[in-house]
């Protein structure tokens, strides 16, 4: 059985260990090793995750199977003071992908976002990530694209994808 539970500051090591397993596999054909290490450091260091949770209003959820964490999602309500919920991260262990868990996590965020009065989910995804097709499948469309310079000469080459949540995803 899959459970979706809230995570907090004390779960930072668990988030980091999932990321360390999932990121290299997800991005091996998309980004260089150097860029993967660089991005993991600035998004998943103790300092970065603490800031996201304490200062930037990011909320983390775990997906659990038999009480074991198999993935995480983070989101931010009222993104940029709009009625949007931004999904910052969603990552599932490779062996658990394709079993409906990602969709379940989005259903949970949709419920929370609607309850809060938000009407849109928004996210960034690398333009070469096959997750683009997952997002389309669950109701997202491409709303734009942006290249974000993240330092050290690295770029994030993203689509911005959005989904209206006045109806269920
Ligand atoms: C992207 C991710 C979160 C999707 O979660 P998932 O549990 O694997 O997807 P689900 O099993 O819930 O799929 C839901 C639906 O999307 C479809 N789908 C999933 N991945 C797909 C893909 N790559 N292409 C087309 N359809 C896809 C499924 O077939 C399913 O369709 P159905 O409802 O008709 O049965 C997960 O695969 C993952 O963690 N990937 C690696 C990390 C990553 O890239 N994260 C996104 C960073 S922006």
TrEMBL record:
> Which residue windows are transmembrane per the record?
none
Instruction: Name the source organism.
Output: Sphingobacterium tabacisoli
Output the Gene Ontology terms for molecular function: acyltransferase activity
Q: Where is the N-acetyltransferase domain?
A: 2-166
Name of this protein: GNAT family N-acetyltransferase
Q: Give the highest taxon in the source lineage.
A: Bacteria
Q: Which CDD domains match?
A: NAT_SF
Claim: Acyltransferase is one of the keywords in the record: yes
EC code: 2.3.-.-
What SUPFAM superfamilies does the database record attribute to this sequence?
A: Acyl-CoA N-acyltransferases (Nat) (SSF55729)
Broad EC category: transferase
Q: What UniProt keywords apply to this chain's record, in alphabetical order?
A: Acyltransferase, Transferase
Q: Which InterPro entries match?
A: Acyl_CoA_acyltransferase, GNAT_dom, MshD_Acetyltransferase
